[in-house]
Amino acid sequence: MKNWLIYTLIGLALLIGGVVALANPFAATIAATQIVGLVFLIAGLLQMITVMRGGPDSHRWVNGFVGILFLLAGLSILINPLVGAAWMTLLLGLLFVAMGVMRAMLSFTFRHTSLFWLLLLTGAASILIGVLIFSNFFAAAETLLGLLLGIELIVDGIGLIAFGIVARRPRHVETPA
């Protein structure tokens, strides 16, 4: 199978997955949360393996503590994915507000340039998104991660389909005369 076709098929699969995620953002949120929980669990296990294999100067206590935190977080998310989704939504809301405030503050250092309004408006938009998340937090916790996952899958799918189409075209090499 040609590479361009593989890219196009992967893009099509991502696009379909994104549409499915947007059609049921609650299920996509639960799936995304469980994947994060599984990643934390694996990271904790790997961290604990490094603790067991490490030498006397390998910061075993710190690595062990971090490993236990990862294990507990992973197990907690896997046992109750809705609570995990709420925590991740809380972090996303805080991230949007913090990034928006930082971008708005940064805009004033570019006060006399064309970047001022762009940075100020994008900062305000991020703050607004954060405020919207917190204004209806429980609804956001149930669907936000799924919506973001769906949008990401659709954008990545379109990008890979476009890449596959471009990669299919023959390349013409011009030779100097």
UniProtKB/TrEMBL annotation:
This is DUF308 domain-containing protein. The chain crosses the membrane at residues 31-49, 61-79, 85-106, 115-138, 144-167. The lineage of its organism: Bacteria, Pseudomonadati, Pseudomonadota, Alphaproteobacteria, Rhodobacterales. GO terms for cellular component: plasma membrane. It comes from the Bacteria. Keywords: Membrane, Transmembrane, Transmembrane helix.
